Amino acid sequence: MCTLTPEDRVRRLQSTFLFPDLQPVSLYSVFSAGSDGGHWSRRLLAGVRGGDCVRESGKRCNACFDRLATALRRLDDAYRSFDETLFRFDCMPAVDTASATRPFSPNGSCTTCRSWYKRWLLVQTVSIWREPPCVNWCYYAQLACPHLATSKVVDYAGHPSFQCRDLDIPLPQEQEKASRCGCVHPCDLRGMVVDGDLTHRPPTTHDFYPSRQHCEFQRRQCSRNTAHDRRVLAVVSASIHMPQFQNTVVVAVMLAVAVIQ
Fold first, then answer.
1. pLDDT over 70 for what percent of the chain?
2. Cα(257)–Cα(261) distance, rounded to whole angstroms?
3. How many CB atoms lie within 10 A of CB 239?
């Protein structure tokens, strides 16, 4: 990989896939995280933690890919342990009358659970992006995975095979927007979300898997927030060199923009 030219390396990343047994995702999608053209590598951490895999050659490039390979081995070890638990649990969708008790959820199966758990492991172990992974990775894994029944009669609902932590911590509205847009979302990685009809508005609750219309809504919302931030920064920068009267007008304009948003 490191002996290739930058153009050939991009093509190799595009043709190299992780998780071929589930829903494959290309290494290019992992590295680019939704960016395209000449700017996609800007989302990566500097040096051996990410950027050297796509910008450098020789020892620095090799060290970067060695680090990635080590992370993927840890991922496989963790996934194998989890998969052994699911293997003992009959949670595939019903196919006939005899298997009618199989479904544990109307939304998924053990296959869906395996897919999202492995994706969550991916974003937790590779650690190559400047932004942290969004909480959606964890939530979709929790939504997809079953609750396992125990031998105790009092444990009616069973125990979750996967559970996110600290999901109920309240956040101010602005911090919530930042946490939704200032992170790597499943919609950012091509191949994570199946195509669908864009004519329907995505649900307002969080109890759903990501869809194409949800990703489009996410993209528009975050683009609008980014554009608003740029306008405010431009106004603040210009106001530094203005007289006092003009500064007062600028502050009023900024407040009006904030109210409109």
1. 59
2. 6
3. 16
**Nearest Cα to 51, choosing from 60, 27, 59, 8?**
60
CA–chain centroid gap for 75, Å, is 16
End-to-end CA distance of the chain: 46
**pLDDT value at residue 71:** 94
Closest CA to 122 of 110, 145, 103, 140: 140
Residue found under tokens 């043709």: 15
Locus of tokens 């600028």 = 250
Structure tokens at 88: 């003992």
Q: State how far the Cα of 105 lies from the Cα of 119, in Å rounded to an integer.
A: 20
Enter the DSSP assignment of 196: -
Q: Given this model, what pLDDT does residue 83 score?
A: 85
Q: pTM of the full predicted structure?
A: 0.69
